[in-house]
Amino acid sequence: MYDFKIAAADADTMYRDLASALGGLVAGETDAIANMANAAALIWETLPDLNWAGFYRNVGGELVLGPFQGRPACIRIKFGEGVCGTAAATRQVQRIDDVHAFPGHIACDSASASELVVPIVRDGELLGVLDLDSPNPGRFSEADEAGCVKLGEILARAL
Ligand code: SME
Q1: What is the DSSP string of 61-114?
Q2: Is residue 135 exposed (0-12), middle (13-18) or buried (19+ Cβ within 10 Å)?
Q3: From residue 109, how far is each of 39, 40, 75 by CA, in Å?
Q4: Cα separation of 149 and 156, whole Å?
Q5: Are strands 94-96 and 52-59 parallel, antiparallel or unpaired?
Q6: pLDDT (tens digit, 9 = 90+) per residue, 88-119?
Q7: Mutate to test the pocket of ligand 1, among 36, 56, 74 (most ligand atoms within 8 A of CB)
């Protein structure tokens, strides 16, 4: 049984514990879908104020929906489109305080107000993106970005 209780004492401690829990969850497992599914669930259970947490995979140069928690979402996103497609095309983290001000933002859930998208890259290959959405404007801080980049590094070795 996995029973993680990660207290959000401060962001650094919380993300350190979250990274440790994620490392434990994916250790020894090579199935990418299983690892993304558990990662999405762990993030969803741990981070407050999210309305979506999950993955889009790079399938032949297009983002295709992967394991997630939250409402059903857009299935395919072209590189360069929306926040996720921009993260995929540029391989740069996208931390967007107000998604409605982001040109081409794809509104899968009208409740989303802010978004953090982390590209997952291994050996120069884009595997996909980790996408977090929040109903709160400006939900994601620099500490969230740094913490989620670390989660992405763990996942890059596990997908
Ligand atoms: N808002 C995203 C689309 C994916 S959903 O948020 C799950 C975007 O603009 O790329």
Answers
A1: TEEEEEEEEES---SEEETTSHHHHHHHHH---EEES-GGGSTT---SSTT--E
A2: middle
A3: 21, 17, 13
A4: 10
A5: unpaired
A6: 999 999 999 999 999 888 888 888 999 999 99
A7: 74
pTM recorded for the entire structure: 0.95
Q: Which two tokens stand for residue 106?
A: 């794809």
Integer Cα distance of 91 and 149 in angstroms: 12
Please tell me the distance from the alpha carbon of residue 96 to that of residue 139, in angstroms, as a whole number: 9
Say which residue the tokens 């409402």 belong to: 71
Distance of CA 45 to the CA centre of its chain: 13
> Which atom of ligand 1 sits closest to the CA of residue 54?
7
